[in-house]
Amino acid sequence: MDPNKRIVDALRSSGYKATPQRVAIAQTVLRSKNHPSAETIHEEVLRLHPTVSLSTVYNTLHILREMNFLNELTFNGTTRYDPNISLHINMICLHCGKIIDVEEPSLEESINKIAERKGFKITGQRVDIYGVCKPCQKHENSVGL
Ligand SMILES: [Zn+2]
Ligand SMILES: [Zn+2]
């Protein structure tokens, strides 16, 4: 299905107006691969819609979160948005803020088994691991020398 239409339909069926600004914000975040912040999304949408405000961006992200189109990742006082809502690991570098997605089928299997054992119905997930990414480790080492 046309991704645009999917967003418009979802907004309307949840009782929201599918304004061109909202659709542009949704498109920007949903095709993002780098877990952007609201500010980053705002900067990008401003190129197409120079009058869009940061609060419209926050508002739209909140709606998308409610509709289960994305996950909110809050850490170190910042919030980043993840359009990948399937089970995966977010490896978060506390040095540069980069978030690396890791798909791990064996993890999904384990979690499903645990949920089954506990009779638990999973409706969402978030697996975060914090640390320092490879390039940042190199950088730290060279600074240390
Ligand atoms: Zn890093
Ligand atoms: Zn992710």
Count of helical regions: 6
CATH C-level name of the largest domain: Mainly Alpha
Count of the separate structural domains = 2
Strand content: 15-25%
Largest sheet: 3 strands, mixed
Low-confidence stretches: none
Order of helices and strands: HHHHEEEEHEH
DSSP strand tally: 5
CATH topology of the largest domain: Arc Repressor Mutant, subunit A
What is the terminal-to-terminal distance?
54 Å
Strand order of the largest sheet: 4-3-5
| Overall geometry | flat
Comma- or semicolon-separated keywords:
flat; three-stranded mixed sheet; 5 strands; 145 residues; alpha+beta; single chain; two-stranded antiparallel sheet; binds zinc ion; 2 domains; 6 helices; Arc Repressor Mutant, subunit A
Characterization of this structure:
With 145 residues, the protein is of the alpha+beta class. The protein folds into two domains: 1-84, Arc Repressor Mutant, subunit A; 86-145, Dna Ligase, domain 1, CATH 3.30.1490.190. The chain has helices spanning 3-13, 20-30, 38-46, 54-66, 105-118, 134-144, and strands at residues 71-75, 78-82, 89-93, 99-102, 127-131. Strands 4-3-5 form a three-stranded mixed beta sheet, with no helix packed on it. A two-stranded antiparallel sheet has the order 1-2. Helix 3 packs across helix 4 (54-66). The model has no long low-confidence stretch (mean pLDDT 91).
Structure described in brief:
This protein is α+β, with helices and mostly antiparallel strands and 145 residues long. It has helices spanning 3-13, 20-30, 38-46, 54-66, 105-118, 134-144; strands at residues 71-75, 78-82, 89-93, 99-102, 127-131.
